[in-house]
Amino acid sequence: MKIKFIESTRYLQDGRLLKAKKLPYPALTFPLLAALTPPDIKISMTHEIFEDVDFEEKVDLVGLTSITNNVDRAYEIADEFRRRKTPVVMGGFHASVEPEEASEHADTIFIGEAEETWPRFLEDFRNGTPKKIYQAAARPSLAGLPLPRFSIINPKFYRGYERKGLARFFLKPAIPIQTARGCPFTCDFCDITHFHAGTYRPRPIPDVVNEIRALGGRWVCFVDDNIFAKYSRAKELFRALIPLKIRWVGQGTLAAAEDEELLRLARESGCRGILVGIETISRRSLVSVHKERLNKVELYKKYLKAYKKAGIDVDASMTFGFDDDGPEVFKDTYDFLQKNHVPYAGLQPIRPSPGTPLYQRLKNEGRLKDDKWWLNRDLTARVYELKFTGSKIPDGEFGKSLFRMVKRFYSMGSIIRRFLLPPQRAFPLKILITLSLRRKISPQAFISEY
User: 9, 244, 261, 403 - which has most CB atoms within 10 Å?
Assistant: First the structure.
């Protein structure tokens, strides 16, 4: 039996598919599913952002996962395989939120996490009795998860994974590790909250430590939705990581800077950078999406200084298109990032993901440009534009202003002012990283997509 896993890319405005040469690290989904698959089943994997899908390949089953912004292309791939009489299964965030829609393009749909349902499906499939929908009766235990099978990925597509030539002495692979699932906060625009029903479920810390040791990672990317979700547990985790002598990055909250011990332990355990959802410098906008309890605008400067003092770089996620945003929001946000010497930033429009309170509110108000905007290729391709109406910023001007800000933030002048006036810690390396991001700025794609 042969299974082909496929991770789809998306279409650009000119009709081409988004492509990249390398990514920092692979996603966990398919390596974990592979680890849950009996060893007598042969598995191969295609990540379409790197290589074309081979529709002629003879396989017994195709498995697809996709985020909302890419799902139109995923459906296209699924339809073509089914036309060729190859069964298709789909899962992931989008399929879990829109199972009826996804069922039109796949033979079987997985809703939610698949630790229990995937093995059950494989048994049914071999017996010729697969069901249309699989959904676990309860959320699976995260204790004793199998070691992800990264052997199914092509190492040449990930930085540091192809251990050959001189690069093997200078580049270390970043290993993705998950220590917990979910987030206890309930931001209106976040699909994570909906997928995990507002729960936060940590793995046993010894399991995490053993996985890092088994995979041999010196650089680790913790893919938790919020590594600081529970301070006491985070401190326990960081203490357990210190003997491993790893370096790591992850996602967390700016407000974690309230706890000096937490940041100190994070740094001692190897933390070098945290992606934080600052989102906006407007308190009214934070209130509109129920994030004002987590983000305190008046404390931003203090928190950023605390991260800097701890030796942890902040990668700020900044979101635009809140109802309170006027044309000045781009300049004001740029000035804020520059003044506080924020080294990196992801700059994007707010996205109404299906299943979120934000999506439902905009739909009820009749403001969505398309109730199923993810199936509208023109809307998904225009990544700098909003998917809804009613903004204080004219529709055509919004995307242009956001793209101009991205280019300005990653301009040489901006980079020099952030890192050299005055000189920041480890500024040569930070400048090199920022310049690599600068080269990937495109009017058709986000830097983060590469």
Answer: 9
